[in-house]
Design goal:
The complex is a heterodimer of chains A (449) and B (395). By secondary structure, chain A is an alpha/beta fold. Helix content of chain A is 30%, strand content 21%. Chain A has two domains: 171 residues, NAD(P)-binding Rossmann-like Domain (Rossmann fold), CATH 3.40.50; 273 residues, 2-Layer Sandwich (Dihydrodipicolinate Reductase, domain 2), CATH 3.30.360. In chain A, the strands form two sheets. In chain A, strands 14-13-12-11-7-10-9-8-15-16 form a ten-stranded mixed beta sheet. Chain A is globular. With 395 residues, chain B is mostly beta strands. Classes of the chains: A alpha/beta (449), B mainly beta (395). At the A-B interface, helix 3 of A face strand 17 of B.
Chain lengths: 449, 395
Amino acid sequence: MGSINRRDFLKSSIGAAATFTILPDGRSLAAGNKIVLGIIGVGGRGRALLTSLVRRSDVRIKYVCDADSRCYGPAAEIVVEGHGYKPQLVQDFRKVLDDAEVDALIIATSDRWHALGTIMACQAEKDVYVEKPLSLSIWDGRKMVEAARKYNRVVQVGTQSRSAPYADKAAEYIRSGKLGEVYLARVFLMQESGPIHVAGVQPVPDGLDYDLWCGPSPRLPYRPGRWFWRLWDFYVGYIMADMIHQVDLARYLIDKKYPDTACNAGGVYQFDDGREQPDTQFATFEFGKLTLLLEGALKAPYMHRIVHLKDKTRFPDWPFSATKVEICGTKGFMCFGRHGGGWQVFAGDSSTRESRPVVSAPAEHKFGSIIDLHFDDFIDCIRTRKKPKADIEQAHLSMVICHLANISYRVGNRKLRFDGKTETFINDAQANKYLKANYRKPWIVPEKV
Amino acid sequence: MELRAVILPLAIGVIFCNPSYSKWLEISNLQIRREATELAGPKILIEYNLNDPNISPTSPAYIFLRCSKDSGGKWQLIGAEALHGNGFDIVAKSGHKQVIWWGTGEIGISNVANLELRIRGIEMGRVPAGKFVMKSLPGMGRDESRNGKPDSDLPMFYIGKYETTIGMYVDYLNETGSDKSGWNQRMSDSGRCGIIRDSNSGYSVKPGREDYPVTYVSWYDAANFLEWCGLRLPTEAEWEKAYRGGMYLDGDDAKRLLNPIPERRYPWGNEKPNAGGVYRCNYDGREDGFPQTAPVGSYDKFSSPYGVCDLAGNVSEWTLDWYSTPYHVGLDGFRVVRGGSWMAVPAACDAITGATQLPLKESSIMGFRGVRQAGKTALAVGYMRWITRRQKWGS
């Protein structure tokens, strides 16, 4: 079997609908064999993912990779402490892709690397976990889906709430018709925030491959900190980067794909820090007879993220829940909380003019364990070749909604008509300019993946 | 009326610390007497010798006293505001010291017969007041929820010359930690720490590990230890100034000693930690002589301009500052650790690199040291006895 190309072999085994994969070196992805992983991007988020992964005995972290080698220590320590061995430490993720032993790549870099990193990993026959927000543009996301499908890869996205059982139960409730017809859904991301501070230009520090770090985004002068979060070329904005979780949940609950129209309102009202993305956004989307409303604001200190709840049997204080989804049916009103907030359905009593909860479903799992459930699904899908719950295409469809709101903002908060079949705006050259992100050679997301 | 003083021997014994618990300064000839007065209750006279010849105004000792009013049951810090004399708080000279404690009643001690005292000392580096170049946070990019720039003009403060050692921490645990607070199993299991909890709820150090930096301590563990001492964690600004030095190493009041490299990348200058085959700190790998942590002060030739050791490498150090972004608002926010570690690449041991960690994180690569701001009194009130002898590595 040594002469068989691993890629070809994987294709054939997947095509035969095998329930697990036999690798050309004799290893197998059947239960009992460890899945070999590499992780790229080991800042705070990457280390949080590593902390979950090292709780598993069915994976081996072979590589810790970051363009900034100064990040190695705290990340490697998690593996040493959790698994008892030291991973290989590399700056260039292509070394990870070149290693045939690696089964899957965990991508926890900043957003600009999500699309190209995923595509290159698929081309290298790696399965992928990629963090949210999925992409910097609608086109990016579509190419990621194409790559996943072309190379038959499992690509899971870090929208963890999809793996929470309480989300399935809420969706089942709505599908059963108990909530009545749904014409309106609301998604929230309202919270306290602060300005993005911009440090002075400094020499590139030792240990940082700054060119690789910038990757597909412009190579601007080096500054420490997160100055780049202000710029479209690096980031989709605070609101959409986090609201994507709730948008994805809402889209799961209402079971819709593409909206027909999108219209944003809002702007940069609060923070005078040079940011390009709005800090206040209301966006409406029409899905036939259903309207979806996104409400985002970054100066709302009276709103609270559900993750703060210690007691998971409690429900959020819904009016002040920063990360909730509201589904308005003709029979009932569902409040759904991200981060393990659970869900409740309220029904009205016309005689008393009061509404009371008629269904209360706690999340059962704490937020941290939902991340573990998410990786359960990922590892299981790597073995079975099923699509994960947070499959790349579902995440892309959700991310499209976020991009649509942002593009509406970028063209003057105009109402846009969108064609889901082509993923383009209808007769709107100005809006269509924003379908693709700006890329920097050689890190170009290819037309043909 | 003539004040009459009656000198009585204090009815308690003096306990000297185990000399193997290193990095407490050496204190000897401790004598404690009670002097009865007619005016203000008992006065306690404490005399001892501070023996370290290296103690000086630029490298002083921080002396703190803790007391027990129930024969060693519970202990408390004696606040500096209750003390007089030349042998407590920042002590700039070795030799014979005298401390007067007048105010036992203020902390609920009416009968000194059962009083026990402990004295401990920590070597510090003096960081004079003045401006310095803070490069890690220009524009305050690290705490993105705060307004205003980080303070690059600091008042004088003192910072621990060494990272807190396992020996010191065990001493603390034995005085406070019978309920396991401040200790976790990994401290015992891992070869990277070495604090064993015995069946009698006491703690001991694995032989030979006394002078290694304590690890697996959360931010709260570090803060609690330092509160026990009357110290606190350094802010990021303080940590970085101690690392790099101010614009004038003797401070902005004197301005006689210009810092030759105020923007230095490492405590010793700009040479890389392994330049020329000379190893200047403990970073990742074995080539520096230490595959894991090293005894504190192992690279004392490459200390900061204030003589502070191991700011680069060995263990990353908790700071008082936290890190916040809009994602983290309202959470018990991330704290900032600085300085690289034995698992970091050499570049990560520089003056500006940091990492964020949740405050409950207990890690084999993270430790801490304390700070005393000049002119600040202790946080709590208490009394004391004893100290350890410094030891050479391997002796």
